[in-house]
From TrEMBL:
This is Iron ABC transporter permease. The keyword Lipid biosynthesis does not apply. Its main location: membrane. It is a multi-pass membrane protein. Gene3D superfamilies: ABC transporter involved in vitamin B12 uptake, BtuC. CDD domains: TM_ABC_iron-siderophores_like. InterPro entries: ABC_BtuC-like (IPR037294), ABC_transptr_permease_BtuC (IPR000522). Belongs to the binding-protein-dependent transport system permease family. FecCD subfamily. It comes from the Bacteria. It is found in: Cell membrane. The keyword Ribonucleoprotein does not apply. SUPFAM superfamilies: ABC transporter involved in vitamin B12 uptake, BtuC.
Length: 336
């Protein structure tokens, strides 16, 4: 049985890596300018080729693809951490209103800076999103003390999300027209317009957070068996829960800061990875979720920018189409 499980894990990782590589090169080639495999190889590896194609790959497509890869993986891992924290597979940054809280504060900061013609840095956006995430998480934690049923907690999270969205819309109503355009494009959710500077900041924040989450795999495994068991195994429950909250908030805040609110990735992908691997061990699920989230967002971004080209769909709309049925299936199966 142990050997079969190890084979399953290995096959699962191989499948995810192959899908990731396929979608990576498919995304590079997809668009109004078509390129052969040799052209793509020369541009990426040898850094030679026709100037227009070279600029399209290096200045537009590669930063966007890497952002989708990093942020998709970050959002998926954030969802898994929240599901571990609350002990329920329906918990996620979008459903619990954490992404909406981040969106509200980022919107306020963007409007404030744009109205004064001040350029907003990546760090400022991440900090603003983190503050918004922590405010929403604070409300959720307060509600969780009064409400014991997870279904009620999810409903409260959805209501917090609606309140944050309503306040955001109210603020946008009184913003300048130029500010509304910038905010509207961002608030729909998109990886377009990503720069290499954004990718560098994302890489540092996401990889550090991912490494810290991976180092917490052992206490997470104990926590999954119950707080009492984890405490008996020497886990500091209070410090552990705070660490989970901070890591999940940083990851979801980074996604919201650079790509806007993206729905259902944090719920659907961890469930799909658990179903693929037939395990919930954090030491396997965390890297699996990162790869799965990257694959899922690369696939959805490919659809968003190619299906109705030159019109581009918001990434959140596409992820909802594929992620929502997974969530519905989870809820029906749990009810049974």
């Amino acid at each position: 049985m142990k050997k079969k499980a190890q084979i399953r894990y290995a096959v699962s990782f191989v499948i995810l890596i192959v899908l990731l590589l396929m979608l990576f090169f498919w995304n590079i080639n997809a668009g109004s300018v078509q390129m052969s495999v040799k052209e793509i190889f020369d541009i990426i590896v040898k850094k030679t080729g026709e100037q227009t194609a070279y600029n399209i790959v290096w200045q537009i497509r590669l930063p966007r693809i890497l952002a989708a890869l990093l942020l998709g993986g970050a959002l998926s891992v954030s969802g898994f951490l929240l599901q571990t924290f609350f002990g329920n597979p329906i918990a996620g940054p979008f459903v619990l209103g954490i992404s909406s809280g981040a969106k509200l504060v980022v919107s306020l900061v963007m409007i404030f800076l744009l109205s004064r013609e001040i350029a907003s840095s990546s760090l400022v956006m991440i900090l603003a999103a983190f503050v918004g995430s922590m405010i929403s998480m604070g409300f959720i934690l307060l509600v969780s003390r009064k409400v014991k049923r997870m279904s009620m907690l999810v409903i409260c999270g959805v209501m917090i999300g609606y309140i944050c969205s309503a306040v955001t819309d109210f603020v946008v109503t009184f913003a300048d027209d130029s500010n509304i355009v910038n905010l509207h494009n961002w608030s729909l959710g998109s990886f377009s317009g990503t720069t290499w500077g954004n990718v560098q900041v994302c890489t540092v924040v996401v990889l550090i957070s991912l490494a810290l989450a991976f180092l917490m795999s052992k206490p997470m495994s104990a926590y999954q068996l119950g707080e009492n068991y984890a405490q008996n195994m020497g886990v500091n429950i209070k410090a552990f829960r705070i660490s989970l909250i901070l890591l999940s908030s940083v990851l979801s805040a980074t996604v919201t800061a650079f790509a806007g609110p993206i729905s259902f990735v944090g719920i659907a992908v961890p469930h799909l990875i658990k179903s693929l691997m037939k395990t919930a061990k954090p030491i396997l699920i965390i890297p699996g979720c990162f790869l799965g989230g990257a694959v899922f967002c690369l696939f959805c971004d490919l659809i968003a920018r190619t299906v109705f080209a030159p019109t581009e769909l918001s990434i959140s709309s596409v992820t909802a189409i594929f992620g929502a049925p997974v969530v519905i299936y989870m809820m029906v199966r749990k009810q049974r």
